[in-house]
Design a protein that fits this description.
Largest sheet: 7 strands, mixed
Shape: globular
Strand order of the largest sheet: 4-10-9-8-7-5-6
Distance between the termini: 39 Å
Number of domains: 2
Radius of gyration: 21 Å
CATH architecture of the largest domain: 3-Layer(aba) Sandwich
Strand content: 15-25%
Order of helices and strands: EEEHHHEHEHHEHEHEEEHHEEHEEEHH
CATH superfamily of the largest domain: Type I PLP-dependent aspartate aminotransferase-like (Major domain)
Number of strands: 15
Structural class: alpha/beta
Number of helices: 13
Helix content: 25-40%
CATH class of the largest domain: Alpha Beta
């Protein structure tokens, strides 16, 4: 098929005309697909949730965009919800997760510069991280494949192994270090959960050395793990700065950089900005999404349905050890490390009308809407089992 689109995506040969809840209806009129990609963890409330549709339509009839030259009252309303639900005191709104990460990097470096230590620029990251596709975010993650062909690496970014605390402690103690950035649960990197002792040691070391701690919760935040933010499963590990997006707008492009007053103290007027970030249309949808997601009943449901889904996947791993090697993740951010090549399994699942996402370390990811019902979870497991049976290694066994 000829296309005027830049060829940066290896797209599946599928197109959809409509969605409802966890179901996507293809444009060829065939049976619907069970969607466990959910816009890569973005459509937290499923497709076309009526509350979001109404919020979008109502705001669209009033005001879309005015720019940040003027007051946007809806920004204050959403910021109050976010800061009231976590460690943060202040918020900057963006359009995407990678923009939120870029803002976090600027906030951290500006903090030290404003305190008379502009040499503190280094941002420490960790192996397997993914922070987005803008240049700063790419360098923060350090994935060689994503950086190839884009020139020399930017200075001021280092990546460390997660399992080497001595190396991390030494890097944090370096007087040039500005911040540490970590995903409490890695998404693209293979749904790896950062253990509580490691997160706590990071927090303590950063506090001791005057280094700012940044959590990238673009994928793990907004209820994905069963808490509003993944770091809230543990006490005394909260960051100074946090990037969120994806589910914040539940499919509408909204992101945010959250920070304490102290961490954001260097961000004076004119130090950062965005044309579309925090526009009235995005804020209206995000406020409606926040209220639905932050509801305690929603969080309880995520934990319950995730537990059932995870138990079923463990049984599949026992039944098909030649296909499934390991179950990872937390809540409804689920990683399944495969024995065969993960792309082959994704194709097998697609043949069963089940959509799953790829991940690092030969994983597939299941990222269904938080509204997934128990009956739909059973349907996921049934289609996963059919995909396992269809794999050549399973058939041979």
């Amino acid at each position: 098929m000829n296309s005027s689109l830049m060829s940066v995506y290896a797209r599946a040969p599928l197109a959809f005309e409509r969605g409802d809840g966890v179901w996507l209806h293809p444009s060829d009129g065939g049976p619907p697909y069970l969607d466990c990609v959910a816009g890569v963890a973005s459509n937290a409330l499923g497709h076309c949730h009526p509350v979001l549709v109404e919020a979008l339509a109502a705001q669209a009839r009033k005001l879309w965009h005015v720019s940040n030259m003027f007051e946007v009252p809806e920004q204050n309303a959403l910021a109050a919800r976010l800061t009231g639900a976590c460690f943060a005191d202040t918020v900057f709104f963006t359009n995407s997760g990678t923009e939120a990460v870029e803002c976090a990097i600027k906030v951290a470096r500006r903090y030290h510069a404003a305190k008379g230590a502009p040499e503190r620029q280094t941002v420490i990251g960790f192996s397997g991280a993914f922070h987005g596709r803008t240049y700063g975010a790419l360098n923060a993650a350090g994935n060689a494949a994503h950086l190839e062909g884009f020139g020399e690496r930017m200075p001021g970014f280092v990546q460390l192994a997660i399992d080497n605390w001595q190396e991390a402690a030494k890097a944090i103690a370096d007087p040039r270090t500005a911040a540490v950035m970590i995903e409490p649960v890695q998404g693209e990197g293979g749904a790896r959960v950062m253990l509580e002792p490691f997160l706590r040691k990071l927090r303590q070391a950063c506090s001791l050395r005057g280094v700012l701690l940044i959590h990238d919760e673009v994928q793990s935040g907004m209820g994905r793990t069963g808490k509003l933010f993944a770091h809230q499963w543990h006490e005394d590990v909260a960051p100074d700065i946090m990037a969120v997006a994806k589910a914040l707008g539940s499919g509408f492009p909204v992101g945010a950089c959250l920070a304490t007053h102290a961490a954001a103290s260097g961000m004076a007027s004119g130090s950062h900005g965005s044309t579309f970030g925090g526009n009235p249309l995005g804020m209206a949808v995000a406020i409606a999404a926040f209220d639905e997601i932050a509801n305690p009943e929603t969080m309880a449901h995520v934990s319950a349905v995730a537990a059932e889904l995870r138990e079923g996947l463990k049984e599949l791993a026992q039944a098909y050890p030649e296909v499934i090697a390991e179950i990872r993740g937390k809540g409804l951010l689920i990683g399944v490390r495969m024995v065969p090549e993960n792309r082959a399994f994704i194709a097998a699942a697609r043949a069963q009308r089940l959509l799953v996402a790829a991940g690092g370390d030969n994983c597939i990811r299941l990222l269904p809407p938080l509204t997934l019902t128990f009956a739909e979870a059973d349907a996921v497991l049934e289609r996963m089992e059919r995909a396992c049976r269809a794999m050549p290694t399973a058939a041979a066994a």
